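quick one before i forget lol
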Amino acid sequence: MIRDDVAKLVHKAIKKAQKRGDLPKFEVPEIPIERPKQVEHGDFATPVCLQLARLARMAPMRIAEIITKRLPKADYLGSVGVAKPGYINFSLSEGWLARQVDAILDVGERYGNIDLGQQLKVQVEFVSSNPTGPLHVGSGRNAVIGDALAHVLAAAGYDVQREYYVNDAGTQMRLFAETLYARYAQALDRDEPMPESGYQGAYMVEMGQRAAREHGTQFLDVEREQALEALTEVGLGYTMEVIREDLALMGVHFDRWFSERTLYEDGTFARVLTLLREGDHIVERDGAVWFTATDLGADKDEVVIRSSGAPGYFASDIAYHYDKFIRRGFDWVIDVWGADHQGHVPRMKAMMQALGLDPQRLSIIMYQLVTWRRGGEVVRLSRRTGDIVTLREVLEDVGADAVRFFLLSRAAESQMDFDLDLAKEQSSENPVYYVQYAHARICSILRLAEARGLATGQGDVTLLTHPLELAMIRRMLMLPEVIELAATSLAPHHLAPYAQELASQFHVFYRDCRVVSSDPADRELTLARMKLIRAAKTVLAKTLHLMGMTVPERM
């Protein structure tokens, strides 16, 4: 990235100034490079001279003058200036900027990729909603954040695996099976009461009716426990089928669907419990087995085995992460959780220490709730179930692209409103439409050029000197920085404003600069601008792909 190259130039200039005696000897700190807020201040700036004032015992402005004098030559630099109170501003060469159009086209869809991760093995575990019903709308933000982050990390050079943790063990599955048994029996005209705290959704009635159609009375003709065991599998199959379909509608796919039950069936939990006992992280009190998380910095201990003998909720967490790190060897694990799980984070860090793992290898992204609005009013969207808002209903209402873009438009830790009317509007007011239309418009221009017999691969990019042309190139060159920022901060929401800014830059350029001219005198400029918009198309498409959105060629 040019930003990093500029930092290296400044570092070299400081070292050279020290060697020549212009600056005293001191350890050169990391060189911060910023994007100036005002265009007239250039493309990059560094405040490093302000930091060096104490070390060099000189005025920042004087240090800046010395550094600029010793800067090595670079073909990408156009001008370098000093600004109070000691900033060094850098402007990129316009000729170099124009040549980057060819560089982007040469790289193609790989443009923007960086080698930050060096193929470290990363697992992103997200959604992981209990398989006791269809995905509710709250799972949409989880899915979008996790999937976009996985795309970003892959582009940043990590070896990424996506995983869905299927919570198919424990008390919730037992209650789910009992509810399904009741609805199944009722569908066969048997008088079977609903379990206390059972799942009341209409989808359970439909599931019971389906089980009755497909299996007849066979589960009523066996012992209840045997029936519940069988219906657990039947119901799990039904819900996972729906969950997979819902996620596929969003374009979300997983490399692995991990069953919680396997942690107990293959001895993983028993092995982990032994390790914790050997490390003195287990105590027994009140008839239960506890993990002493407080010894490792957490605010409370956690039940591992209940007094009933059943594993506690945290038991699966420990065994699952042992499997991730120890058995499967992930270098880094990222879990995407709702904000209501914030209190669980300390115990997860304690768990890592107990397993002899660096807590920094586990990252947990917490996301806030979404308020859904139509016509300015908070609304419930459910038309069919009457009790929950399903993700599928929203997808069918506004489309997967709108859901993904809007849910990525704010940081995960920020609460947000989702305007359903705006998401369906086909105008520049709708950011989804605005961004995708930029790509479709470029495709339309290229089709026009092809119809006129113009070769889209030719063109002299040195003819690209108009301020709007150069502004668009500058924006395209920011993509690697956006990918790095999103990857290092685990914040894929940075993609959405970048896509809007690039689309806006193109729309303004298209408004003021004719791309395909019928005047033979403009042929060479036409060919150059066709290259420019092909590069913009490449960068827009890459950004949309990173967000998991479709890339329309016609709208």
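fyi Confidence is low (pLDDT under 50) at residues 382-386.
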